[in-house]
Design goal:
single chain, 287 residues, alpha/beta, D-Maltodextrin-Binding Protein, domain 2, 2 domains, 6-stranded mixed sheet, 5-stranded mixed sheet, 11 strands, tungstate binding, metal ion binding, molybdenum
Length: 287
């Protein structure tokens, strides 16, 4: 029997080794391919999530409004956004004259709710509110307030008494209640007599602070502001026909980038659901 020489086996070994190397290379290539696919899938996931986040980003509606509406609008915010998750309501509270000036100077706003008509009239004349959106949303009432412990002042006429040294009134140029106060006191023939006693406040909340802290014996504010404090009492409302009706107009601002959503929210503010909240806080439905 002949034994195979070592040289005769070498080609077979080389062939087997070559096949083994080929298989190993193929497996390694497959592993690399699979890992590359997984890596791509992982890398793509954040992009998908990011695009979904962008799609559900809420629309921010900025409402510039009088401070007297704060209690009502904060309650309305919860109700409205629960039904309209795509909307985020942001309120900018301030004297109506100041808010008017902000809009005139180009400040961002989607809706303007004024405590008086003159401010809205001025913006409308300049084309700064969207045509066809203006409404008379609500009505309010001017009242005389004193500290809850003050029992001496019982009427408008009592303000002329010598012991009454200071009477809070809003800044004439920016606080609509100040203009209504002047109109009322002129009708009652009290303006000239009381003018030396006036202490000017930048807004009605400052007038309330004056009265609450007894830095003023009395003050003039809206009924809807007065009822928010347990430290003051209402002496009397302004007499009927002593001033023009107090109307709170509302409109979509012409420069709004969210006109459709703003109009939709303005429509909701006129709904029975919203009106119940306004009326609970002392307002009356606008006419």
């Amino acid at each position: 029997m002949k034994l195979l020489s070592t040289k005769a086996c070498e080609p077979q070994k080389a062939c087997k080794a070559k096949v083994s190397y080929t298989l190993i290379a193929a497996l390694l290539g497959l592993i690399v391919l699979l890992m590359s696919g997984c890596s791509s899938a992982v890398n793509e996931t954040p992009k998908t999530e990011g695009s979904q986040t962008e799609q559900v980003k809420p629309i921010e509606l900025l409402v510039s409004t009088a401070p007297s509406l704060k209690g009502s609008l904060e309650e309305i915010k919860g109700l409205y956004t629960a039904k309209n998750a795509q909307v985020k309501l942001v309120y900018n509270y301030g004297p109506s004259g100041s808010l008017q000036n902000q809009i005139e100077q180009g400040a961002a706003a989607d809706i303007f709710i004024s405590q008086g008509k003159p401010q809205m009239d001025a913006l409308e004349q300049k084309g700064l509110i969207k045509q066809g959106t203006r409404i008379n949303l609500l009505g309010d009432e001017l009242v005389l307030v004193v500290n809850k412990n003050n029992t001496r002042i019982k009427s408008f006429e009592d303000l002329t008494n010598e012991e009454v040294k200071k009477i809070g009134i809003g800044e004439a140029e920016s606080v609509p209640a100040a203009k209504t106060t002047k109109e009322t006191l002129e009708t009652l023939k009290l303006w000239d007599k009381l003018q030396p006693k006036f202490v000017i406040g930048k807004d009605l909340m400052q007038i309330m602070t004056y009265v609450e802290t007894e830095n003023a014996e009395a003050g003039f504010v809206w009924d809807t502001i007065a009822i928010t404090s347990d430290k003051v009492r209402i002496v009397a409302p302004a007499p009927a026909n002593s001033h023009k009706p107090v109307t709170l107009p509302a409109a979509v601002v012409a420069s709004s980038k969210n006109g459709d959503e703003a109009s939709k929210f303005l429509e909701y503010l006129q709904s029975d659901e919203a009106m119940k909240i306004f009326e609970k806080n002392g307002f009356i439905r606008g006419e």
